[in-house]
Model the fold of this input.
Amino acid sequence: MPGLLRKGRWACVLTAFFSVVVFSQEKIQLCAACHGPEGNSPDPKIPSIAGQPKLFIETQLVLFREELRKSEQMLPIVRGMKDPEIIKLAEHFSKLPSKGMESGKPDAALLKTGAEKAKALRCGICHTADFGGQNQVPRLAGQRETYLEAEMRAYRDGKRSGGDTIMAAALYGVSDADIRALAHFLSRRGGP
Amino acid sequence: MNKLIAFAVTAAFAAPAMSQAPAWHQGKPPAQAESKLAPHAGKMTETPAGEIHVDKLKLPAGFKAELWASGMPGGRAMAISEDGKKVYLGTRVIGRVYEVSDDGSKRSVRVVVDKLTQPAGVALKDGNLYVFAIDKVLRFDGITKSGDVKPVDMTAKFDLPKEQHHNWKYVAFGPDNKLYVPFGAPCNICEPPSKEYAQIRRYNADGSGKEVIATGVRNSVGFDWHPKTKELYFTDHGRDWAGDKGFEDELNKVSKPGGFYGFPYCHNNGTPDPDVKKAKACEGVTKPVLLMGPHAAVMGIKFYTGKMFPAEYQNTAFVVRKGSWNREKPFGFDVVNVRVGEDGKASSRPFMSGFQEGGDSYKFWGRPAYVAQMPDGALLVSDEQTGAIYRISYQSPKGAAKKK
Done:
């Protein structure tokens, strides 16, 4: 009897394991459809997720699922998603290399303003000196410009929260022009 | 509306000239400008039981820790039903309140309510559950008996101010049957933007009869009442960015309502703040009962009245220190036992540790947050990092003389 029970338990564990793997492959393809096959987004409005810190991806997927970060596109994808699946997806995309995507010619004046603003606002303290991100704090280097600009404005205008109010406070009073410069600069940062 | 909020935020930061810094970041001196210290990341996903290292926990001889419940990401303050069969847990970022049900041999978990803005405060009164989010108060009538009930929205009764920082709650009913609610300062260090902050209030259970019972309180997220004197003891977080030595977190006492506890002008046992200055900064300030250590993040407190632990623990307090972030070397990450003498003097000794294993560098697998007492006298300790509850029990070591 104990042997049978143990076998039953193993079968259960194996089924769970394979269902997570199969499920993840399907979900990975679903992610790739918008975020790019390797997680580097071909669409300037959609963020790249390759090379983002694992904890950042996990946290954002949970926030989407809990509807604390509101997104019509993301909610149907993550609705009902279990934590182990979220962790698997985060692991997968965090390990893919981040590649800067074609974003048009850099504007020297905008780059300069953006670099100055990033320094003044001390973005690098949390997002790290190369803007590669850490833990729950996202990579900004090489992120899509249009996306970065829209999200920074949303934070500043109180339209994106979730988690805490740190980014709203960090971007308080920053002008549209400076946000544009920041996005221009950060999207063109390379680095591993 | 947004403009209003933004204005209040600026006002809150106006004291030192750093108008754009996030609240936790504000007040940083030039010497620490390049510091990489930042609040630790919370964990939003379930930690499997096998990854919770309860075997690493250290306790005095005779005490034992076991994993009592898990799978409640972000779970922190606990409210226990009288029969001990239901435990409700508040959370911050993940926006949920959990209900843990105990059938005597195992525990099951369900989400009572979600999508709230940091519903950290939970309290039970006559079988009704009170949930305090930053911007909402809900009451679930008869929840301990009837399970899935629709909440009554009590928000309008409680005059919640609009700033969010440090306004996640700990709430509890006192021996006077009043509901005690703290309102933190919306900054690290500042003159609060209005009089609604940096204070503890009490209300009747229906939200009427608001009364401010303590002011100058930076950020209290834990309190309990002494079983004999019935005085309120509250924990309070000291300010950040003033160096590794402090200012220290505090354990304070309310002997009579209306005391001023020093924020933002005076810290520790009478040290003026270096940034927000005032003549005679420490005059009229009610000093702490006990300093709890620099950046310790002192959280839950519970006076022990159970029968399970040795007599020496009777009426002493278990106080949780979730652990520092604004300090080069880690401090806290433990539960201490505080004894208050007849003369009112308090002292503390270690009780539970083992969460932080990196020595002088940060490497922790858990962060204890709150303590609660079960009807059988066992202690529950919640861990906000692993989303788990540990049960601490005591069995007299073999051969030890039993004392009555």
